[in-house]
Amino acid sequence: MWWTLGLIVAVVAVWALHDIVQKKHSILHNFPVVGHFRYWLEHIGPELRQYIVTSDNEERPFSRAQRRWVYASSKSENNYFGFGTSVDLEEHPNHVIIKHSPFPLNDPHPGDANFDASYSIPSQKVLGEYRGRRHAFKPESLVNISGMSFGALSGPAIEAINRGCELAGALHNTGEGGVSPHHQHGGDLMWQIGTGYFGCREKDGTFSLERLMEVVEKNPVRALEIKLSQGAKPGVGGMLPAEKITPEIAAIRGIPMGKDCLSPSSHREFDSVDSMLDFVELLAQATGLPVGIKSAIGNMDFWSDLASQMATTNRGVDFITIDGGEGGTGAAPRVFSDHVALPFKHGMSRVYREFVAQDLQDHVTFIGSGKLGFPEQALLAFGMGCDMISVAREAMLSIGCIQAQRCHTGFCPAGVATQNKWLMAGLDPTLKAARLANYLVSLRKELLRLCRACGVSHPAYMTLDHFELLGKGMATQPAADAFGYDKTVTQAATLYEGIVR
């Protein structure tokens, strides 16, 4: 025992001496040994706040209440909350209020002739129909999965999402990392083409139409999405560190081993709206697929020019994915996450008004993205003119993400955002696929229930007249006024002229 005690004292003494003589950290010099607790507590601060300090509605990016709803929904557990709202409605600015109808529609129940256990909500628009794409199609679900790449996410996570999309009839966006074997488990794909052209590039990094055609012919790709920017880091390219690049990732992306995988900030194939539309039509004519763009919203000159050229030329995108500045599944510079690109509601309203001004709103499918994986936010997006929405981090939560915020380190404890074999082994793709499907079905179920409470049968029939925003104290504001939607824009946001029951 004395030997053990002496050894411990000796180790602590050496440790203290090291802390005193080192020059890097003044805290450790001034408080040897015990000063390390400061750094340990700082390191586990997010976990302490997550489970001990914060209330149900405080934490960001997703509160405990939001995570609890996703977790319960994904496990088909009771996702109700008891004893009334925990939100202070009179002191919660911009709180969304949905104005229900005095004559709501009845919900079908198990045993009714029109009951649908999958709560399927097909899109009311045919993707690619207006421009006559050969493979235009009507998406089975207006709730789909947003772009998350293999590489940023683990193979088992991608497989779970793809299997879950097949179960729920949803589209799976590949992210810019290319189409991998993990995407080939039954779910239909929207292939995202980023600035690195991963999976469809030459060795020098330029775009290869031949390679793109090979991948499209071998996989269930239903649409192509050209990524201009994303909410997490708009205006800058991405980077996958060399240590996270496996031989499988290198082969899929067409990149060398041992080097950081860099995505440029901008595309090499086009540098203007005019040349971008030429690139869009090249892809559409070669593949017959609907082709769209994804972008966070900053400078509005681009969108004015795009709407103008689509109105005056025989070229155009089939869909536009609006990504909010609050979005982002991976790592990004904090200043870009916090200060670059408009939040979804501001960005969507500005772009949509531009297209209404050119009478183009029915020619394009609008897809919303950016923390829209909750019923009230999704419904508001449909009221603003969205035809579909895509979810990402909420999907990650449904397959086990605990919001540890370690995505950028490669040590995701849930095995979702990592390439660590030990951590990935804890994620069962079959089990998690069912949980993703359950979450998507639950979200669609809540959307339908909200629509029926408002007296309409489909989210496409919602307008901003159905919403109001609470301010501090007793202030309120109609949502249409808040987002600058006059009657023309509000009516344009509804797919049909009347309310169809």
Mind explaining what this structure looks like?
This protein has 501 residues and is α/β, with parallel strands linked by helices. It folds into two domains: 2-76, no CATH class; 143-453, TIM Barrel, CATH 3.20.20. The protein contains 18 helices and 13 strands. The strands form three sheets. An eight-stranded parallel β-sheet has the order 2-11-10-9-8-5-4-3. Strands 1-12-13 form a three-stranded antiparallel β-sheet. The protein has a two-stranded antiparallel sheet with strand order 6-7. Helix 13 (375-383) links the parallel strand 10 and strand 11. Its EC number is 1.4.1.13. One of its GO terms (biological process) is glutamate biosynthetic process. GO terms for molecular function: glutamate synthase (NADPH) activity.
* Coarse shape: globular
Radius of gyration: 25 Å
**What is the name of the CATH superfamily of the largest domain?**
Aldolase class I
Reported by name, the CATH topology of the largest domain is TIM Barrel
**Total domains:** 2
Assembly level: single chain
**What is the residue-mean pLDDT, rounded to a whole number?**
88
Largest sheet: 8 strands, parallel
Named CATH architecture of the largest domain: Alpha-Beta Barrel
How far apart lie the N and C ends? 81 Å
Which structural class is indicated by helix and strand composition? alpha/beta
* Major sheet strand order: 2-11-10-9-8-5-4-3
Number of strands: 13
Protein name: Glutamate synthase [NADPH] large chain
Keywords: Oxidoreductase
Domain Glutamate synthase: 138-456
EC number: 1.4.1.13
